[in-house]
What does this fold into?
Amino acid sequence: MKADRLLSILLLLQTRGRVPARELADRLEVSVRTVYRDVEALSASGVPVYAERGRHGGIELLAGFRTDVTGLTADESRALFILAAQGAHAALGLDAALGSALRKVMAALPAPYRPAAEVTSRRILVDATRWKGGPQPAVDLDVLQDAVFADRRLRLRYRHSGAKDPSTYTVDPYGLVSKAGVWYLVADRRARPRLFRADRVRSATLLPDPVERRPGVELAHAWEELRRQVEERPGGVDVTVRVRRSRLDMFVRLNASSLARLPEDEGEKEWVTVHLSYAVVREARQLLQFADAVEVVSPPEVRAEVIAAAASVTELYQRVGRPAE
It folds into this structure.
């Protein structure tokens, strides 16, 4: 709608200052000619906006002009208040700032939308943590945040999974990402993207040197590249199992990270086929927690591994229960 587009232009100019017409057109997915017509419409309605042509030109508001957010729709106001439920603000030390910002937004909302926005914050809850994820280690994001916002290099002492001692890296940070309740630092090391779990950072030192990022690469691009590498990493072992339907939901929840694809629905049959992918055969031992509710179909080496693990557990219990001589 044209009204929404006009408001978007107004807010972009208020936030960014002078913006090239081509950039506005790309953001709004319209032609440059449409952008200039919208600018004329804003000017005709009393908004002090003007355009300068040329290499360094652009569209700009008169200095000192501000507007409020009374153009927000009901759905837009609800979306803003759902932000308060996402939990990332506490880790970043921004809970108080978020509350203050939402109070200001509430005051500026059209009166008919205020009740709906307030109810949204009480009716929608987003919990990003996984079921039975266990207690999470404390994470200190202060120095990482400082580096991200100041565009400075970082020196990290970082302990990799399974490593006894931490390694030292000098990195160029792009930003922080919270995924499923876990914080990650996205950074370049020697011009290659790397992912660092924040809870494995043993120490972080802000360096005086400015970051040296790859030209044209933003946080979203770097994260997408790293995310794709993780998700498309070939699994070491493809495993097919059958799971009792009565335990299927619990099995899927606890093995979500190992699912190769969604389970095949076989109607009302008692057993459902599930395909998994493990890095190594030994990881399949976790299937023992479902005892007689899971049957390994293939491959034979995984079946043998699970049987051997079950035999070891049985032998252990028999030895523990045997009376002392």
Observations:
- The chain has eleven helices and ten strands.
- Residues 40 and 49 are 8 Å apart (CA to CA).
- The chain has a mean pLDDT of 79.
